[in-house]
Amino acid sequence: MGDFLFPIAPGAALAIHVALSAGIVAAIVVVAAWLREKRAGARPDVPYESGILPAAPPQGPQNAPYFLIAALFVIFDMEAAILFAWAVAARDAGWVGLIEAAIFIGVLLLALIYLWVDGALDWGGPRQRKK
Predict the structure, then answer these.
(1) 3-state class percentages of the chain: helix first, strand second, coil last, to nearest 5
(2) Could you tell me which residues are beta bridge partners of residue 52?
(3) Enclosing domain of residue 110
(4) Which of 38, 55, 58, 83 has its CB surrounded by the most CB atoms within 10 Å?
(5) Closest to 123 (Cα-Cα) out of 64, 60, 59, 62
(6) Is residue 131 in some structural domain?
(7) Could you tell me the CA-to-CA distances from 33 to 44, 49, 98 in Å, in that order?
(8) CA 6 – CA 65 distance, rounded (Å)
(9) 49 phi/psi in degrees, rounded to 5
(10) Has this prediction a pTM greater than 0.70?
C-alpha cells in the first residue's frame, strides 16, 4: 500500500524508523536535562518530588495490600482483555471457542479459590483462630 505513495525498501524504512526513534528519545533526554531545576547541594539519595523534600525517611515495611490490589487489577484486567477478544470472535470460534473460554475461566476461578482459601485475599490484620 505504501509503494504507491513513496516507494522505499523495507530495510531502509526500518533504518529510518530506528534513526527517528533514537533521535526523538535523545531530544527528549536533552530537553529534560536542559529544563530540569538545578538544585545547589542536591543529594542523589534523597527523592525530590513536586518540589517538596521529604520530612523524614519512610520507616517500616511497605503496605502489602496496596501491591496485592495492583497485582489483582493487572491479572483481571488481562483476563477481561482476553475475554473481550474472544467475545469479538465468538461466532467464528464456535463451540470449540466456547469450551476453551470456559476452561480459561475455570482455571482462573480455581486460582481465585486457592488464593481465597490460602488467605492471600485477607487484607486485614492477622485473625485469631477460634479454639
Answers:
(1) 60, 0, 35
(2) 49
(3) 64-118
(4) 83
(5) 64
(6) no
(7) 15, 16, 53
(8) 54
(9) -125, 130
(10) no
Residue 79: all three cell numbers together: 483476563
Residue-level length of the chain: 131
* CA 35 – CA 77 distance, rounded (Å): 36
User: In whole angstroms, what separates CA 100 from the centre of its chain?
Assistant: 26
Query: Which three-class secondary structure state does DSSP give residue 123?
Result: coil
**How would you write the pLDDT of the chain (131 residues) with one tens digit per residue?**
556 667 888 899 999 999 999 999 999 999 988 887 776 666 666 666 666 666 666 676 666 677 777 888 888 888 889 889 889 988 998 999 999 999 999 998 998 898 888 877 777 665 555 55
Retrieve residue 68's grid coordinates: 496485592
Helix (H) or strand (E) holding 25: helix 10-35
